[in-house]
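Re: [ENG-882] Designed sequences occasionally contain unexpected residues at chain ends

Forwarding the minimal case from QA. Structure tokens:
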């Protein structure tokens, strides 16, 4: 278990105007922009429920697919075995609804990852109730699930502040 770590992103994306004057904890245990890699393309499963729109999920996955970060398939209505299974399922990126006790104020969503050394084992993305269809949000969280951390470059998809995030992606120097 020693090299099996879960990284918690208490990160994200703060609503415009919501973040002024308050402190936020941003933690990473990662020093390079892309620290983790999937050995095999992950399966993406939606355990959030039908309120997460299939079109939003598919266009978010297409964004990463076009950049070369592939997934094996997308399952919009997974079986109970998957959704009632472990919090992190090997080989999967899972969308889930966050419990009230999991979310600090101002956090729209966050991603947890399990990895063995630099290899991704599994990842789960938690959305605050009703944030799941917000523009760019699934794209941003999938970026974490594909192994990226934040950058403070404005308009970059991995910017941690929702109001400064954009649809652009490149690996910074
Ligand atoms: Zn983030």
């Amino acid at each position: 278990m020693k090299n099996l770590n879960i990284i918690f992103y208490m990160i994200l994306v703060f609503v415009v105007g919501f973040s002024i004057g308050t402190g936020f904890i941003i933690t990473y245990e990662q020093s390079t922009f892309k620290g983790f890699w999937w050995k095999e393309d992950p399966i993406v499963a939606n355990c959030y429920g039908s309120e997460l729109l299939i079109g939003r999920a598919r266009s978010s996955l297409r964004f990463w697919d076009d950049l070369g970060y592939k997934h094996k398939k997308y399952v919009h209505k997974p079986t109970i075995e998957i959704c009632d299974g472990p919090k992190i399922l090997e080989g999967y990126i899972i969308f889930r609804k966050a419990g009230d006790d999991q979310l600090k104020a101002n956090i729209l969503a966050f991603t947890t990852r399990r990895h063995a050394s630099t290899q991704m084992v599994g990842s789960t993305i938690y959305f605050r109730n009703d944030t799941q269809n917000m523009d760019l949000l699934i794209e941003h969280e999938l970026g974490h699930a594909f192994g990226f951390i934040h950058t403070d470059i404005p308009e970059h998809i991995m910017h941690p502040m929702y109001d400064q995030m954009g649809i652009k992606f490149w690996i910074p120097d």
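QA comment: On inspection the terminal residues look reasonable. The longest helix spans residues 54-66. Proposing we downgrade this to a documentation issue.
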